[in-house]
Amino acid sequence: MKITEPLKIQMECRWIKGAIFTISAPSIKEEAMLDYGSGDCDNKAKLKYGKKEAIITI
Questions:
Q1: Can you give the residue range of the structural domain that contains 25?
Q2: What is the distance between the alpha carbons of residues 28 and 25, in angstroms, rounded to a whole number?
Q3: DSSP element (H, E) containing 45
């Protein structure tokens, strides 16, 4: 796992407000990306793998 964009956190928010992680492993064909968004204080993130993407709840 590699941090592509640094974590954005704030003491008043219990969730990560922004960050992008790139995930790769020999057992998966393509890199996956976990995107925490652009600053909203919520428990949602976008998971992308190949052409598929989904909003997940953290």
A1: 2-57
A2: 6
A3: strand 44-49
**Residue at token pair 């956190």:** 9
Pairing between β-strand 44-49 and β-strand 32-38 as defined by DSSP bridges = antiparallel
The alpha carbon of residue 44 and the mean position of all alpha carbons in its chain are separated, in whole angstroms, by: 9
Does residue 29 have a pLDDT over 90?
no
For the entire predicted model, the pTM comes to: 0.82
- Nearest Cα neighbor of 18 from 33, 38, 4 is 38
Cα–Cα dist 28/13, whole Å: 33
Q: Which two tokens stand for residue 46?
A: 């976008």
Q: Is the dihedral of CA 5, 22, 20, 9 positive or negative?
A: negative
- Total domain count, the chain: 1
